[in-house]
Structures are given as structure tokens and as C-alpha cells.
Amino acid sequence: MKKETSARTTDPRFVVKKSGPGKGQGLYAVAAIKKGDFILEYVGKKIPTSLADTLATRYLFEIDSDWTIDGSERSNQARYINHSCDPNCEVYIEKGRIMIYAIKNISAGGELSYDYGEEYFDEFLKPVGCRCASKKCREPAKE
Ligand SMILES: [Zn+2]
């Protein structure tokens, strides 16, 4: 995995816009992106995971049992990336930082997604149904 030294929170390669039905906003590629390309770092306030467990925000990203990133600031462009059960991006923890890379080629105008993981899925998505619309969806929204 190639290293990324500078922290990028917003990037002109991406644009935030309205996503599919019931999904709010999403993050879209302006131009084509290649598999393996660095996308963004998920940035925010670094808080103890024990504190994060008491907060009711959807934008918490756990690095490990000690530290969590609260990515609720709008300047954290990565927070707009929606969940998919069949995503085109993946998150890697590198030296305590949350780095997102493309795991598929993404065409211009394509929506970026990564798998939020079982814990988030069971807490927030399963009760209402997932709207990723992929064929591999674990629990599609009914209707
Ligand atoms: Zn799904």
C-alpha cells in the first residue's frame, strides 16, 4: 500500500451531492479513479474510544480500543462516503490514521462507498434496511 503523507480532507477530485432515494448525500468521483488510488483520510477530533461509546453520532470511526475519530465536521469530506455491502473503496488503519483507498476502478460520476462493518450495520442499517442497492446486499430495505 502506498504511503500518503499530507492529510487531505477535501479534494477537488470529489464532489458531494444528493445520493439515491433515502440515502441523503453521497461522495462522487469527478473524474475516473483507478483501483489502488488513495481517496481521502477520514479526519476529525481524536477522542478516547471509551468516551466515543457514550456519544450518539453516526460519524465516529474507531481506530482501536483506545482511540476513535469523531468525523462529524463538514470539512471531513470522507464522512459523505456512503455504506455499501459491495463497495468500491476500503479503509485501512495506517499508524493510527484512517486512510481510504479505491479497491475497484471507479468511473467519472460514480459514487464512492465502503463497507461500514458489522457493528455499524447491525446498529444503524439493519433496523431500517440497507439502501446500497447492490446484489450482494446483506439486508435490503423493503419497498
Ligand atoms: Zn447493502
The CATH architecture classification is Beta Complex
Low-confidence stretches: none
Q: Provide the number of structural domains.
A: 1
CATH topology group = Beta-clip-like
Assigned CATH class: Mainly Beta
Q: Mean pLDDT, as a whole number?
A: 91
Number of E-type strands: 10
Q: List the bound ligands.
A: zinc ion
The main pleated sheet reads as: 3 strands, antiparallel
**Tertiary shape:** globular
Total number of helices: 2
What attributes does this structure have?
three-stranded antiparallel β-sheet; single chain; 8% helix; binds zinc ion; Beta-clip-like; mainly beta; 143 residues
Explain the overall architecture:
- The protein has helices at residues 49-52, 118-125; strands at 14-18, 25-29, 38-42, 45-48, 60-62, 67-70, 82-83, 89-94, 97-102, 113-114.
- It is mainly β and 143 residues long.
- It has one domain: Beta-clip-like (Beta Complex).
- It has a 3-stranded antiparallel β-sheet with strand order 3-9-8, with no helix packed on it. A 3-stranded antiparallel β-sheet has the order 4-6-5.
- The longest helix is centred in the C-terminal third of the chain and has 8 residues, at 118-125.
- The mean pLDDT is 91.
- Bound molecules: zinc ion.
- Residues 85, 130, 132, 134, 137-138 line the site of zinc ion.
